[in-house]
Every structure is written in structure tokens, then in C-alpha cells.
């Protein structure tokens, strides 16, 4: 699997990671800022939470790592949490924002 194919596979796996408080996946919520795949298929994901005080951050990040590790051919997996820039509802997928009336 090439790097871009692996990056797409990672993105698709992250769509299975649900923020249990909100009931939407981390990609739809706009919590995933960046996905990098290097030449050895090591994966680094830069993501945020809806709030720095999110009580589910550890579980969400653990679920993301587990799902990414399940992809055949993945090397090391690193999930980095950032709050710069801070998340806002504007990052939610536009279709979902409209459905939610945001």
C-alpha cells in the first residue's frame, strides 16, 4: 500500500472513532487536523478535542490508535493532541452543521 492509500485508509478508520458525548465521528467533527505517513508507513495524527477539559480525550485517542494499528502494513502510530488552533463548531462538516442547524 502506498503512502497516499495508507493515509486514506487511516482517514477512513478515524471516521469510525466516535466522540461518545456528541455521537459523531472525529473526522466529521473536524477534530483531525493532520495525518502524516512516512516512508516506513509510520503514522502521525494531529488532532484536538472539542474542549481542553474533554473527559473522554484519553478514550478517544486510544480508540483512534487502536483502529489505525488494525490497518495492515502500518508501522508506528503516534496521536498528538493539540489545542492550537482551538476547535470551534465551524470545523464540523458543512452538511452536518446544516443538519444540526448550526
UniProtKB/TrEMBL annotation:
Boundaries of every MIP18 family-like domain copy: 8-79
InterPro entries per record: Fe-S_Maturation_MIP18 (IPR052339), FSCA_dom_sf (IPR034904), MIP18-like (IPR002744)
Pfam families noted in UniProt: FeS_assembly_P
Protein name in UniProt: MIP18 family-like domain-containing protein
Amino acid at each position: 500500500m502506498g503512502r497516499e492509500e495508507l493515509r486514506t485508509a487511516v482517514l477512513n478508520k478515524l471516521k469510525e472513532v466516535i466522540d461518545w458525548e456528541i455521537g459523531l465521528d472525529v473526522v466529521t467533527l473536524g477534530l483531525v487536523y493532520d495525518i502524516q505517513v512516512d516512508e516506513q508507513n509510520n503514522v502521525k495524527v494531529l488532532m484536538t478535542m472539542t474542549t481542553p477539559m474533554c473527559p473522554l480525550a484519553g478514550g478517544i485517542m486510544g480508540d483512534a490508535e487502536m483502529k489505525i494499528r488494525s490497518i495492515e502494513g502500518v508501522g508506528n502510530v503516534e496521536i498528538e493532541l493539540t489545542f492550537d488552533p482551538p476547535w470551534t463548531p465551524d470545523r464540523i462538516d458543512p452538511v452536518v452543521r446544516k443538519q444540526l442547524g448550526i
